[in-house]
Specification:
Length: about 325
C-alpha cells in the first residue's frame, strides 16, 4: 500500500513555487493515495521565528492547503509539534545518521551561510527530523519540489542503515515524487535563484495572498531578456528568466513548455507577461478568496488541525512502539 507524506514550513507567505512545485501536486495525489500532509513548525524554528508570527503563519499555511483543495476529511492534515513522535523518532535518527552525511547537505550550507558556527544545532540535524516525519508513518512516496531531493536521499540512507543495523525491514525506502512543469520555480528578479520565502525582495515571488494588482505589477517587473519568445524548448537554453516564465505559464495552464511556445512563438515579453499575469490571477484568485474566508474565523481550521493531530498520533503510535521494541527501549 502506497502512503504519501509531505510537509511545508510555516515561515511566512506561501508562494507560487510552493504551490506549483508541491501543494498542487498534493491535491492531485489525494485522488489515488492515502495522504498525510503536515505543517512543519518544528522545522521552522531551526531559524529564529517570532512566536506570534509563527502561530499566525501556521494557521495561514493550513488555510492555504485547504483552500488549494486538500480535503481534510479524506487526508490527515496536522501540525508537526502536536505529534510528539516526530521529535522522538528524530532523536533516534540523530543517532543513526552520520556526520559525514549531514556535512554534504547543500541546504544547510546555503542557510547557514558564512556564519556556520552561529547556526542552530537544529538547522544542522534538520534532515534527520524530516526523515522522521516521513518514516513515522512508513510513508513510501513524498511529493516535493526539486530542492528537497537531497534530503529525501538522506531519508533513504537513514532507513537503510536503521534496517541494516537492527536486522529488520521496518522502514520503507521512500521515493520522491517530483513532477509537473514547475518543480523548481525561480525568482522573478534573478533566474538563477529559486523563488523563496526568505528572499529579501517581495518582487522576487508571487505570494498566494497577493491581489490582482500586485500580481500584475510583479510580473510586469519580472526580469527578462530583450528577445522575443522562441518557438521551441531548445530556444530557451541559456535564457533562465524566459524559461522560468514559460514554465510558470505551462504549469498554470496545464500545458507543456513546448505547447506554450507553439502558442507564443515570436511574441514579445510585454504581451506574454500580460497573458501570464491574467492566467495567474485566474488560478490564484479563488484560492486567495477561500483562504480569506477560512481565516476570518479560524475555528474551522483549528478544528481540522485538531482532528488531524489526533489521527496522526493514532497512526504514529504503532510504528513508534515497533521502533522502541527494535531499538531496545522498554515500552512505556
Ligand atoms: P518548504 O516549506 O521550503 O517548501 C514546501 C514545498 O514547496 C517546494 N518548493 C518549491 N517548489 C518549486 N519551486 C520553488 N521555488 C520551491 N520552493 C519550495 C518544496 O520543495 C517543498 O516541497 N524541508 C521541507 C519541509 C518538510 C518536508 C518534510 C517535506 C519537512 N518535513 C517531509 C517532505 C517530507 C521544506 O522546507 O519545504
Amino acid at each position: 500500500m502506497n502512503r504519501i507524506f509531505s510537509g511545508v514550513q510555516p515561515t511566512g507567505n506561501l508562494h507560487l513555487g510552493n504551490y506549483l512545485g508541491a501543494i498542487r501536486n498534493w491535491v492531485r495525489l489525494q485522488q489515488d493515495y492515502e495522504c498525510i500532509y503536515c505543517v512543519v513548525d518544528m522545522h521552522a524554528i531551526t531559524v529564529w521565528q517570532d512566536p506570534r508570527e509563527l502561530r499566525k503563519s501556521t494557521r495561514e499555511v493550513a488555510a492555504a492547503m485547504i483552500a488549494a483543495g486538500i480535503d481534510p476529511r479524506r487526508n490527515t492534515l496536522f501540525i508537526q509539534s502536536q505529534v510528539p513522535g516526530h521529535a522522538q523518532l528524530a532523536w533516534i535518527f540523530n543517532c543513526v545518521a552520520r556526520l559525514g552525511w549531514l556535512n554534504r547537505m547543500t541546504q544547510f550550507k546555503e542557510k547557514a551561510g558564512k556564519h556556520r558556527e552561529n547556526a542552530s544545532a537544529g538547522l544542522y540535524v534538520y534532515p534527520n527530523l524530516m526523515a522522521a516525519d516521513i518514516l513515522l508513518y512508513k510513508a513510501t512516496h513524498v511529493p516535493v519540489g526539486e530542492d528537497q531531493k537531497q534530503h529525501l536521499e538522506l531519508a533513504r540512507d537513514i532507513a537503510q542503515k536503521f534496517n541494516g543495523d537492527f536486522g529488520v525491514e521496518l522502514f520503507p525506502l521512500v521515493e520522491p515524487l517530483i513532477f509537473g512543469e514547475a518543480t523548481r520555480v525561480m525568482s522573478l528578479r534573478d533566474g538563477t535563484k529559486k523563488m523563496s520565502k526568505s528572499d529579501a525582495s517581495d518582487f522576487s515571488r508571487i505570494n498566494l495572498t497577493d491581489d490582482a494588482d500586485a500580481i500584475r505589477l510583479k510580473i510586469r517587473r519580472a526580469k527578462t531578456d530583450p528577445d522575443p519568445l522562441p518557438g521551441t524548448v531548445a530556444g530557451l537554453a541559456g535564457r533562465a528568466e524566459a524559461d522560468n516564465l514559460v514554465g510558470l505559464y505551462a504549469a498554470l495552464a496545464d500545458l507543456t513548455r513546448a505547447q506554450v511556445l507553439e502558442r507564443f512563438e515570436g511574441a514579445m515579453f510585454s504581451r506574454f507577461k500580460e497573458a501570464l499575469a491574467e492566467l495567474t490571477i485566474e488560478r490564484i484568485g479563488p484560492l486567495n478568496a477561500e483562504m480569506k474566508r477560512l481565516l476570518a474565523d479560524p475555528s474551522e481550521v483549528d478544528a481540522v488541525l485538531r482532528a488531524g493531530g489526533e489521527r496522526a498520533r493514532a497512526r504514529a503510535e504503532p510504528v513508534l512502539r515497533e521502533v522502541y521494541e527494535v531499538v531496545g527501549f522498554l515500552s512505556p
